[in-house]
Amino acid sequence: MHASNFSIIGINEKNNGKEKTTTTAKRVDKLRISFDLDENRVSPSGEKKIYVCITDPGGKPITSEILGSGNFNTRDGEQKAFTQKMDINYTQGQRQTLSIDWKNDGKYETGNYKIEVFHNGFKIGEGVKSLKKGGLFS
């Protein structure tokens, strides 16, 4: 399996429920992450576990046990923290678009957020989102 076409958007949630996209770290309330699972003629149809790992600009995994984060084993035998697990129903030979919204427990910091996607212990894709410092002259 392979993941591609990553879209990582910073979302600012307004009090009236409306959402606005932003790249300013202090205004981001959640990250909306979407990507495609490319068509694969080898992988059989059925239930698949996809692990999404978000790493903050300092290199620390973003996790929340309350929101379902945990650990999984990579093919190298090491434990890796995941941000969110997705149980999907995969259809062989078809491209699928997957999406999650991740609302951080704390504030988002300025810098690059790395998104990695794993299946069966293998990294199948990654993307990066840069959040900038806010202010009048940035």
Q: What are the salient characteristics of this protein?
A:
globular; 53% strand; 138 residues; mainly beta; four-stranded antiparallel beta sheet; single chain; Immunoglobulin-like
Please write out the topology.
Elements: E1 3-13, E2 19-21, E3 30-37, E4 46-55, E5 70-73, E6 79-82, E7 84-90, E8 96-102, E9 111-119, E10 122-131
Antiparallel strand pairs: 1-2, 1-3, 3-8, 4-7, 4-9, 5-6, 9-10
Number of domains: 1
The secondary-structure class comes to mainly beta
Radius of gyration: 16 Å
**Total helix count?**
0
What is the top-level CATH class? Mainly Beta
Kindly state the number of beta strands: 10
Shape descriptor: globular
Strand content: over 45%
The helical percent reads under 10%
- Order of neighbouring strands in the sheet with most strands: 2-1-3-8
Profile the largest sheet. 4 strands, antiparallel
Average residue pLDDT: 91
Catalogue the unreliable spans.
Answer: none
Q: What is the N-to-C order of secondary-structure elements (H for helix, E for strand)?
A: EEEEEEEEEE
The fold-level CATH name is Immunoglobulin-like
CATH architecture type: Sandwich
Measured distance between first and last alpha carbons: 40 Å
What can you see in these coordinates?
By secondary structure, this protein is mainly beta. It has one domain (3-131): Immunoglobulin-like, CATH 2.60.40.2560. It contains no helices and ten strands. A four-stranded antiparallel β-sheet has the order 2-1-3-8, with no helix packed on it. The model has no long low-confidence stretch (mean pLDDT 91).
